[in-house]
Amino acid sequence: MKKSKVIISCALTGSMHTPAMSPFLPITPEKIAEEGIAAHRAGAAILHLHARDPGNGRPTPSAEIFMQFLPQLHAETDAVINISTGGGPGMTLEERLRAAVQVSPELCSLNMGCMNINLSDLAGRYDFKHDWEKPFLEATEDLVAKNTFRDIRHIIETLGPGGTRFEMECYEIGHLHNIAYFADKGLLKPPFLIQSVLGVTGGMSADADSVFFMRQTADRLFGGDYIWSLFGAGRHQMGVCTMGALMGSSVRVGLEDSLFISRGQLAHSNADQVLKIRRILDELGLEVATADEARQMLGLKGRESINL
């Protein structure tokens, strides 16, 4: 893995946190755009994007809603637009791809395998604002986030011909081997952006051993042909990012991954988290990549080549 500047990604809203968990979670297209612009100005080169129903905050695959904030983000920043193909619970594969197919962005997220994700313990902790929130969380006890080999191949073959590359999310070691499987078939080509996801219930733990094992395995499989990034879920966010950065990784923060800025204190914005990790990187003597530097590092097609 080549030593390079640190790319900061910011995941603005996600599809698992619910509105009752934080008044600062961006829900409306206007707020998502505002948060994305501020996060980019704070130092995020990549914006990882989901959409939500502006009326009740529920995750939605609606391309129409995506298009209420994507053009503004594209016009007012030079950030790399990264549209999720993971969508949210209950969405079909075709629904998950709608916005990405329409926009053909520089980057899309790509979950590299199926995952059990369980947030049901949170269902008893909040006074919910909307009828859907509590049942949504309770149902995650029986949730499998489906990303079979056929699903992954379909996503690659649908978006890849337009020049879209992928943020490949790996929740466990087997997902790294899945990248190697598709690379061996010629469907994925380097440089690979490998996003290690640690601390999600159902995936690898957020500790130093997991961080090291992820890097060691990726080094063995891909040598210098990848850019490594990682994040820790919830309370693990800043600690895991710091561990990874010390070992040569890029980092991801944002309210999708954690609602907090420090122990027991909600983050008031995505930009708060970007500014915090940037301060940490500065103290470690690490340089932060601009959006254009990230494009060069990742071999992206360029912002002028997307449909916005």
Automatic annotation (TrEMBL):
Q: Which domain of life is it from?
A: Bacteria
Q: Which UniProt keywords apply?
A: Metal-binding, Transferase, Zinc
Could you cite one Gene Ontology molecular function of this protein? metal ion binding
List cofactor names only.
Answer: Zn(2+)
Report the Gene3D superfamilies cross-referenced here: Aldolase class I
A Pfam family annotated for this chain is BKACE
InterPro entries named in the record: Aldolase_TIM (IPR013785), BKACE (IPR008567)
What PANTHER family does the annotation carry?
Answer: 3-KETO-5-AMINOHEXANOATE CLEAVAGE ENZYME, 3-KETO-5-AMINOHEXANOATE CLEAVAGE ENZYME-RELATED
What is the name listed in the Swiss-Prot or TrEMBL entry for this protein?
3-keto-5-aminohexanoate cleavage enzyme
Annotated organism of origin = Sphingobium chlorophenolicum L-1
Q: Tell me the organism's taxonomic lineage.
A: Bacteria, Pseudomonadati, Pseudomonadota, Alphaproteobacteria, Sphingomonadales
